[in-house]
Amino acid sequence: MSDYASIIDQADDYVEPEILPLPLDAWHRAQGARMVEFAGYEMPIQYEGIMAEHAWTRDSAGLFDVSHMGQLVFSGEGVAHALETVLPGDIAGLGEGKMRYSLLLAQDGGILDDLMATRLPDDQPSPFSASDVEPEAYDPLHPSPTAGGSFYVVVNGATKYDDVSYLIEHLPDDVTINILEDQALLAVQGPKAVAAVARIVPGVDGLVFMTAGAFHWNDVPVWISRSGYTGEDGVEISIPADHAVAFADALLTLPEIKPIGLGARDSLRLEAGLPLYGHDLDPEITPVMADLGFALSKRRREAADFPGAERILTEREHGPATKRVGLIVEGRQPAREGAEVIDDTGATIGRLTSGGFAPTLGKPIAMAYVPLALAAPGTRIEIAQRGKVHTATVTAMPFIPHRYVRAGAK
């Protein structure tokens, strides 16, 4: 484990968190952002207002700074199969430039994080100017040339160092983990996002949903995926942090794009039915409880070779005790995280994990964990919040249709 000394030091450092600035911190402030602490960073929560920013993203294109997220590269002999020891997805079957949503699982099947994994090309230089923690073991220009590939993984910002500590413990020593601390991560989301970005990064419009590739902007290498966290078409762009301000300035020269804060990002993802780790997902929740069964690949289900497989497959066959559902809340007052789902005696039988006003729908929506018997769409339930009882109806998610551009649709 001595090879991981540097990375362990970083993980240990995170135990005593300090509030860190993003590479675009001064840029956000110059744009008029109101900054708040989130996931250990000073981040923009809004610029001109959450409602306006939400609507702009749904109609045009919004620029989001998500540089707090953890960007990791895994390489080494047998890396794909090693990752499958902690993820329930078909990682070995991913083609180059293909992405998969997956879940980092505890040994009992609880969710430690959710993430996106992409297989990097074997025969191309690395698109990242990584700050390698093991420079002697990993040449970023020739990532694992004989070791069966490498993977770019994006994890949540608040959990990234806990994730790395867990992965160090459970992956074999042959697998190298590199934290891309010197990379910024920007997202451009909305129906006009890809066409706009393609004007300054030609070729990016050739990607389809859940694919990624290496591009250049003004001779700067960038890694771009057609993915996001809003339910809209769009891209996420990993770029060396030193070039992030110039790139953000270039994006804002495009009239379709405005900067968008965390507030609208949350309302957009809620409308899209996308869970937020630490709120809708945590170690007490399994993939089946979270209604994320699609993340359990068929081959992996048949092999039953992922952490917590017996528990998770039993829940899949017989149903979990509780399940994540979407709710339409009656009236105009939103029900918030922490509100209780109650039965007709007033006893608590569930909990809200996200909630807010949905600008696109013009009504309050929420996500909650409820007993399986109450999880069918159309079921009416009651919510207790601050001494008041609200009525809600279980509804299918997403609350509004996703607008991803998939293969075959172009």
Q: Are there runs of 5+ residues with pLDDT below 50, and where?
A: 1-10, 130-147
Average residue-wise pLDDT: 91
Structural class: alpha+beta
Q: What global shape is seen?
A: globular
Number of helices: 10
Cross-sheet strand order for the largest sheet: 11-12-13-10-4-14
Approximate strand percentage: 25-35%
Order of SSEs, N→C?
HEHEEHEEHEEEHEEHEEEHEHHHEEEEEE
User: What is the radius of gyration computed over CA atoms, rounded to a whole number of angstroms?
Assistant: 21 Å
Q: Quote the distance from N terminus to C terminus.
A: 47 Å
- Biggest β-sheet: count, sense, barrel? 6 strands, mixed
Topology, number of strands:
20
Helix content: 10-25%
Word description of this protein:
The chain has 410 residues and is of the alpha+beta class. Helix content is 20%, strand content 30%. It contains ten helices and 20 strands. The protein has helices at 5-13, 25-30, 50-59, 79-83, 160-170, 193-198, 244-252, 262-271, 298-303, 309-318; strands at 20-21, 34-38, 41-46, 61-65, 70-75, 99-105, 111-120, 150-155, 176-179, 183-189, 212-217, 220-225, 234-240, 257-259, 322-329, 340-342, 348-358, 363-371, 380-385, 388-395. Strands 11-12-13-10-4-14 form a six-stranded mixed sheet, sandwiched between helices. A six-stranded antiparallel β-barrel has the order 15-18-17-16-19-20. A hairpin with a 2-residue loop joins strand 11 (212-217) and strand 12. Helix 1 runs antiparallel to helix 5 and helix 3 (50-59) packs across helix 8 (262-271). The model is unreliable at 1-10 and 130-147 (pLDDT under 50).
